[in-house]
Amino acid sequence: MALLEVEGLEAQYGWTKVLHGIRFEVEDGGITTILGANGAGKTTTLRAVCGMVRTAGEIRFDGRRLAGRATEDIVRLGIAHVPEGRGTFMQLTVEENLRLGAYARREKGALAGALTRVYDYFPVLGERRRQIAGSLSGGEQQMLAVGRALMLRPRLLLLDEPSLGLAPLVVREIFRIVRAINREERVGVLLVEQNAATALDLADHAYLLETGRVVMSGPSADLRRDDAIRRAYLGY
Amino acid sequence: MEIFLQQVVSGLATGGIYGSLALALVMIYQATDVVNYAQGEMAMFSTYLAWTMINAGLPYWAAFVATLAIAFVGGLVIERVVIRPVENAPILTIVIVCIGLLVILNSLAGWIYSYIQKPFPSPFPETPIVIGTVVFGAHDLGAIGVTLVVLVFLYVFFRYTMLGLAMRAAAQNPSSSRLCGIRVGWMLAVGWGLAALVGAVAGMMVAPIVFLDPNMMGGILIYAFASATLGGFTSPGGAVLGGLIVGVVENLVGTYVRFIGTELKLTVALTMILVVLVVKPSGLFGRAVVHRV
Ligand SMILES: Nc1ncnc2c1ncn2[C@@H]1O[C@H](COP(=O)(O)OP(=O)(O)O)[C@@H](O)[C@H]1O
Ligand SMILES: [Mg+2]
Known about the structure:
The complex is a heterodimer. Chain A is α/β, with parallel strands linked by helices. Chain A has a domain at 1-78 and 154-165 and 186-236: P-loop containing nucleotide triphosphate hydrolases (Rossmann fold, 3-Layer(aba) Sandwich). Helices cover 39% and strands 27% of the residues of chain A. Chain A has ten helices and ten strands. Chain A is globular, with a radius of gyration of 17 Å. By secondary structure, chain B is an all-alpha fold. Chain B has a single domain (2-279), classed as ABC transporter involved in vitamin B12 uptake, BtuC (Orthogonal Bundle), CATH 1.10.3470. Chain B has a two-stranded antiparallel sheet with strand order 1-2. In chain B, a hairpin with a 2-residue loop joins β1 (129-131) and β2 (134-136). Chain B is globular, with a radius of gyration of 19 Å. The termini of chain B are far apart. The chains are: A alpha/beta, B mainly alpha. At the A-B interface, α2 and α3 of A face α6 and α7 of B. The structure holds adenosine-5'-diphosphate and magnesium ion (MG). Adenosine-5'-diphosphate is lined by residues 13, 16, 18, 36, 38-44 of chain A.
């Protein structure tokens, strides 16, 4: 059984339907990527998993149905979402942002351990722990967003275009850490990206989304070899 | 010099009260973008409850603590029951709901307790406290002390507790907060509860000075607006400091500018609101914000 199973997922804003029955999976400890152009419905897909938009269809996490649950409760099941635009609490300090990531955890002493772990992955956040998050660079804010998600000790990490607007070097660093997190802690990852080349390198499975429909799917290696994908998304 | 010092201290006492009420306004404003016009009447009603309990024979401080608890729960319930249903409505709707709440609380208090002024006890001795050659009102000093305790409590709560942090987060970025597992609606309700609690303290501290009647907070609320505007509606610390400045300036102007005296003091507050709005709309310590209307 996959960690996340989605079937016939539809989502709409008001009267406008933007997802038309899509199907995808994330294996336990696996990395799945959903690729697609701007406006394809990638963000909406992640928001649907977290109960942030009106949906129809089946979403199962670890065998449990998510439809109809509040976002706050879905988070408590172990799903951490790094949203589009990073969702930084700009006027709070770096460490306060991270502490909020562990808000849903109630175990005693979880906080200190989780903070140390995040600072190990992202030393720069440790150096800037007392700084106001709004003063960080774009790359540092993306690290903070991933760090905040890690504080939950999630079983599934949802990443919404973490590479957007960042220098290639910074993107590589962030993806390297995502891979490390995935390997060391067996955290499943669902990554949505426009940056197909980088995403296909990281993921084991890939889906291609076009205007709310999955038009192609398979192991990342297969998609990377596909001529249509190469021309449209990889640019060679 | 003695008169000057006395006026400053009594200005700090009333200023602390204005500042507390301003802080209550700012807490709600920051979390929900709502200016709670009923804040003063909520405080007035709480003060009547305290008066009822004290009259029933409860010791002052027991009634004080019980009032804070009731005010907190009352604020929380008002948010859940009255504000929540209109939380996504246009801002004007919310304003009207708040004004409706103001009128209801005011009439309810008048109906239950009548509009006749009642004396409200101070927990502090009547004999003034003499330091050197300067005579200070014990209630003034006591009110300053109580206000300080409340402010320190709030500071510690917001700065060092997880719940306080979650409330600040919910005010800044609701959708991100939900993704952290924070129940944003409840945070707003707790914010209303705390604001009501702070307002109740202000009410109980000001009632011995202005006497208790259903309209007692009307003028105070205007001072609170002046304080919040001066400090900046986006800065809790600024609101408190604004209150202290308004309180002291009001007293000094009333003392030293002959034609203003006590009758025109409220004009001083209104003038300060106007000047700040013209010169620096975001207040002394506030940030400029782009706003939904
Ligand atoms: N809040 C919203 N209200 C209405 N339409 C929206 C909203 N958010 C996104 N959409 C529309 O839904 C479609 C999918 O958007 P989105 O999921 O953000 O795409 P992507 O993340 O792939 O760029 C787009 O056509 C977009 O215009
Ligand atoms: Mg998007």
